[in-house]
C-alpha cells in the first residue's frame, strides 16, 4: 500500500517497487483537504518501460505541473521555425488540420516527422494565419528525430502546490533525508533483484554500463541536483550486488568466512576453485545479458 504523504520522486520509488505485483492501494485526498480515500489499482496488465516512461504517467495518472501552452515564447534564428515564418507570440491552433490542445502532441509530431511538411494554422495578434513547417533532422536514439528551434510559453506551478523542505546538515545526513532515502533505495534494489529471480520482473529490465552512462549524461544535463542522486542510486546498486554470495565478489568471501566459522576450518581449495569458476561464469552471463539489453535499446 502506498499510503504515506509522498512527494515527487518518493512516489515514483514506491510505484517502481510494485512492478510485478498484482495490485496496490494508493491513498489520495483533494488538494488542501484531509478527507482521504483508498484507491485500488490493478497492476496485472501494467506495461511499464523504466527507460522510456514515468511510472506515474504509465498508470494513467497525470501529475499537476507547470502548464505549457501552445504559444511560442522564443524562436531561434535560422531555425526551421524561423524559416517557416513563425514568431514569438504565435499560438499554434491546428497541425495538419487537427486541433492542438497539448504541447506534448506538437513535440511528438515534430520529433517523428524530420524533413516532412507539417501544415500549421496559427493565431498571430488575433488574426488566423497558415504556415508550412518542415522540421530539421538530428540524430537520436538510433534514428533521426525532428526539431524546429522554438520554446513554448510556460506558466509556473502556483506556489500553493509547492513544498519546500529544509534540513540542517546533521538532520539531513544523520537523522532524516539521506539515511531514509538510502534505505529506500536499498529496499527497492533488493526487491527488484528478488522479482528478477522469481520472474515477476522481466530480464530485459536489467541495464548495463551503456544505460548507466546514458543516465549519467541525462541527469548531468539537468543539473547537479539530479546528478548526485543518480550517483547515489548507482552506488547503492553496486554495493548490494557486491554482496551477492559469488566467490569473485565480497559476498562470496563473506560466505566462505561464515562456512569456515561454522565448520571450524577453511573450505578446501578444490571447492573454492570450483565455486570461483561457477561464480565467474554466472557473473559474465549476467553482464552479457545487461549489455545485450543495452544494445537492444539503442
Automatic annotation (TrEMBL):
Cofactor names: Zn(2+)
SUPFAM superfamilies the record matches: PDZ domain-like (SSF50156)
Primary location recorded for the protein, binned into one broad class: membrane
Transmembrane segments: 224-244, 274-292
Keyword Cell membrane in record: yes
Compartments where located: Cell inner membrane
GO terms of biological process kind: proteolysis
NCBIfam families in the record: PRK10779.1, RIP metalloprotease RseP
Family designation: Belongs to the peptidase M50B family.
Protein name: S2P endopeptidase
Provenance organism: Escherichia coli
